[in-house]
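Continuing from the previous page...

OK, I double-checked the sequence for Methyl-accepting chemotaxis protein against my notes and this is the correct one:
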Amino acid sequence: MKKTTTQKTKKQSVRTKLISIMLLVSIVPLLVAVAISYNSSTNSAKETAKQNLDWQAKYIESEVDKMLIKAETSLGSFASSPETIAFLKGELEDTTVVKQQMVQINESFHDSNTIVMSNSNGDMVLRSDDGDLKNIGERDYFQAAIKGETYVSNVFVSSVTNSRNICVAVPIYDTNGTTVLGVVHKTLNPDDIHTLLAEDAEEAFVVDKNADMVAHSDFEIAATDEAQNFSSSPYMTSEDETGFYISTAKGYPVYVSYVRNASSGYVICAAKAQKDIVAEARQGAMLIILTGIAMVIAVLVLSIIIANNFTKPMLEVNKVLSALANGEFKKTDKFTKRTDEFGQMINNANSLIDKLSTIVGHIKDSTNTVGESSDELSEMANQIAATTESVAVAVQQIASGAVEQAEEIQSAADSTNQITTAVDNVQSSTNDMSNLADRMKSASEASSNSLATLQATSSEMTSKIEEISSKISSTQNAVANINERVEGISGIAAQTNLLSLNASIEAARAGEAGKGFAVVAEEIRKLADDSENLASEIRILMDQLLAEAEQAVTAAALVMNGNEEQQKALGETLFAVEGMLQDIEETVSSVSKISGEATNCVNSNTVVANAMSSLSAISEENAASSETTGASVEELSATVTNLAESATNLRDIAEQLNEEMKFFK
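Thanks. Re-ran it with the corrected sequence; updated structure tokens here:
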């Protein structure tokens, strides 16, 4: 609160007002000058930026135009060559001269792009890089050039090279100058335009006829990047060849000047952020501000010196009066030699302090004598009262402690009984646990024996399955041998059938003499057919038997694998059960130890309980004696307190008088 009042007083002082007035006299003209200068500098910077951007856009347009004109001129020279015209008309058989001319023109560009010549149907007839010849009849640059006009295409992504390209296409006229025989075109890399922009401009970009960005000075555009489209920009919606506008597409004002290239229809834009344009104006204004601040500081120093010359004498008088208001007699030795009104004020204040100091000194001497006597009496009474009260408090604390001690001993005795009961319960539970562990051990041993028997049975089963698998394999071999014999029977039956057929033919040739032999041959043929049929049936049955035998072998293998896994699991289980048996034996041993320790706890706790009962009776007797002593001490304390109150009243009267005189230091 005192600090706030002091700050408020300083703000309202004469010194502060003098300094404030002189500062205002210097600051107001400075602010007006800065505002005018900043506004003028900003407007000038904006106008200069417009002119620079316009010049920059036109310069870049001329550089881009040079690049395109070079391509158009080179291609036009190639197109007007007699060898080129003769080649397209089919009058030139040797293409070496035309190809060499095409390669030389392409090398003059110092890039990796190609020059391609196509006939009037759009079929490629010659390439500078010996690449595949394709049809480009549907390409926009071909369709425009075949109509007789030089054409610069929009940016497109090549399906072959997967790169961004620009195409310059020039028509090839016949010698009559009216018939278009074909088109020669060259691909250009938009990154070359990016390099040009990056070298000649802070921020510039080129947009094609479809409003897609061709290149930007700040970054290269990859074929996989999504094309930026500026169809809503003023240079696309307006037919003006040049122009200027302020764009806010980036979220902040950007000055943009643009120029349209006549040969390609491309728009070349130069841009600069408004914040960068006005930065120089801000720097000029900042210089003026710094100069003004220096002037303000100088005025401030001068104001402080003048204000101090007026206000310091008044502050000294104020300090003297402030000290007197607080009861302090403080004179000042400052400004006493001044002969003006401030010097007279200082000297009069010092004289007043001397007179008041003498009067108050006599009064304080008398007050101190009375105060000292009352202090001695009050101090003696307080000492007696304090001593008596301390004794009473100590006796009362002893009595309270004895009662609490008796209660705690009784509580400890009750707790000891509860501990005895709990230990008995623990001992009973330990016995139950020991019996349970014995039963668990017996059950685990029985499980271990059963698992061992099961493991032996499983091993025997595996051996039997191996024997069965071996027998089935033998059966498979036997069936295979039978099949071989059946094949032999089938061969014999076929041979017999053939012999019977030959015999029938010979019997027919013999006529009547061979009729009997023909009957025999027919019977032999029937027997051969029956043998063949039986052999086929046997083969089918043997194949079925062989397939079933293979299935049986597979099933036996699966059973054997499952049995092996079962034996492995039984072994692991048997190992775990044996480990569990060891843990159970250790548990039985630990339970026996716990049971013995619990018995010792019961015996010890009984001795402690008896001792606590005796101690409780003694504590109750001590508590009763302490309460009687406390009552006697309280009566003595009340008597001494009355004496102390009387002495205190006398001391208070002396202190009140002394405090009133302490106002004067």
